[in-house]
Amino acid sequence: MAIDQIKKTNSEKIEPKKKNFKSSSNVPPMYVYALGGLGEVGKNMYVFEQGNEIWIVDSGIKFSSEVSIDGIIPSFAHLVKNKEKIKGLIITHGHEDHIGSVPHLLDAVKIPKIYAGRIAAQLIWHKVKDRNVARPKIEIINNKYEIKSRNFKINFFNVNHSIPDVFGVLFKSKHGTVSYTADFKFDLTPVGTKADFHKMANIGSEGLTLLLSDSTNSLSDNFSLSESVVRDTIDGIIQRTKGRIVIATFASNIYRVRELVNLALKHKRKIAVFGYSMDKVVTIARRIKYINAPEDMFVDSRKIKHIKDEELLLLSTGTQGETLAALSKMSDGRHKDVKLRKEDTVIFASSEIPGNFEPIEKVINNLIKNGVRVITSKTNPGVHASGHGGRQEQLFFLSLVRPKHFMPVHGEKVMQVKHAKTAIQSGVPKNNIFITDNGGRVKIVNGVVSYAGEVEAEDIFVDETSLKGQSSKIIDDRKQMSVNGAVIISIAIDSTKNKLVANAELISKGTVSINKSSDLFNKITKESSKNIVDYYNSDEKKSFAKIKDILRTTVEETFLREKGIRPIVIPVVINLGQPVEVEVEKK
């Protein structure tokens, strides 16, 4: 069916069935909120709560450019406080921004069961094994699967994206029906499963109380390119190319990877896989038969020198110019197995993630210096297609399901706002749209949606050393220390006599030269010692915490006033008496 025909069919005035909410007067309200994914692209985590039930949808990660930080995940503090309510974790699909924090979540709370498609389940099992987390129980779902609990009936429907097994989710409660689209586009000629247009239309006919929808590509006015167009474009390039071909793409784009394997088979080229994530995805996809290719098609990277150039296709990571990625090493000669030549062709079957322009350009420039032919989506738009629908597709979805209320999710604030305007254009009343931040709750009672305060939703920074991560306060301290340095101030007291035993001493790292700023340091030590004496002579309750606070404040305020900087201050209190806190009578 053509796009215009589909739009026409679903733009007819079909009144949704009216819901009878009289029986729900004694039912606890339904709450919907995000712990990640709002005002950002990444770390998606959405919560559906009613009474004694919490259902979590997705548990993702957002990649970080910070030094020593691998990524940012949602805080699970709210879930830990309500751990007895958690009934399950639903995974819409297997991309990192939807499953990347699953090991961290499993370490924080007990999840009775995970519900996920085949690809996502395999990726999660592989991920928890890497992090030494116990293998979770995963129920494999499809678009016909249904979950029934005390408060909800949960259904699924297929949507198009760049990875197999992507499901929109439908929560039905006595208070109303809520749907989350997951990541989606409308591809009328997909290389994989077709979207469930009829189910989407039925959602609209039955009445949808609230829609949560992917906002990632809302700034684009056009329909996203079909993945079949990408396949055909790259097919033509391979056919016209005589030398070696290196194709860099997102490893998580399994449909793209599968089609590239099929093209290599068609053109009788052997495949060498480069990059840990690419190797992992290809291995999993072959294991569960998403990729079907003879074993002898795949060759070890160390043996490619024995294969003719016109019979070789290299499948690589490194689309974003990552320094340690295979393509980056190839571009500047660091790769031990691949030395690029002017006869080679490199195809970037990918898009640029915001903030990665410079590293990508560096790799491209290095490739060009080597005389390599470089093809990108800028020089040839047909080599990449977004997995997220543009504004027209978002409008199409809104027209199909006709929600009464709308909550744009999965996108930066500008994307959420643009998506909200599209919803208004589709007929959603302006007052029925909720643009919230992470933690902002909406409440649903008898089909009426309203804002209902906030829950804790902090960023947690993680690396390979721990599943727990660090709060944003610690990361801010690191940044502050790197810019303004650190000062250690130590002081000796006798808590049994409540008196100062030795004046304060300073150690400065990365702030100012002690030799050139001796007056400043003398001033700080004298003022700090005086402030402690004054504190002991006051009628305030005496505590080590207060002493440290006095020292920290004195140092911070003096540095800011004299030098215009605010170093990290580490107060050290040495107690030469008994370690007890006592009251001091007023003199």
Q: Would you mind describing this structure in some detail?
A:
- With 587 residues, the chain is α/β, with parallel strands linked by helices.
- It has three domains: 28-222 and 387-465, Ribonuclease Z/Hydroxyacylglutathione hydrolase-like (Metallo-beta-lactamase, Chain A); 227-382, Metallo-hydrolase/oxidoreductase (Rossmann fold, 3-Layer(aba) Sandwich); 472-575, Ubiquitin-like (UB roll) (Roll), CATH 3.10.20.
- Helix content is 31%, strand content 24%.
- The strands form five sheets. An eight-stranded mixed sheet has the order 8-7-6-3-2-1-20-21. A six-stranded mixed sheet has the order 9-10-11-12-13-19.
- Helix 7 runs parallel beside helix 8 (254-266).
Helix vs. strand class = alpha/beta
Number of strands: 26
Order of strands, widest sheet: 8-7-6-3-2-1-20-21
On the 0-100 scale, what is the average pLDDT?
Answer: 87
Q: What is the first-to-last residue Cα distance?
A: 91 Å
Q: Major sheet: size, sense and barrel closure?
A: 8 strands, mixed
CATH architecture assignment of the largest domain: 4-Layer Sandwich
Strand content: 15-25%
The CATH homologous superfamily of the largest domain is termed Ribonuclease Z/Hydroxyacylglutathione hydrolase-like
Unreliable stretches covering 5 or more consecutive residues: 1-14, 579-587
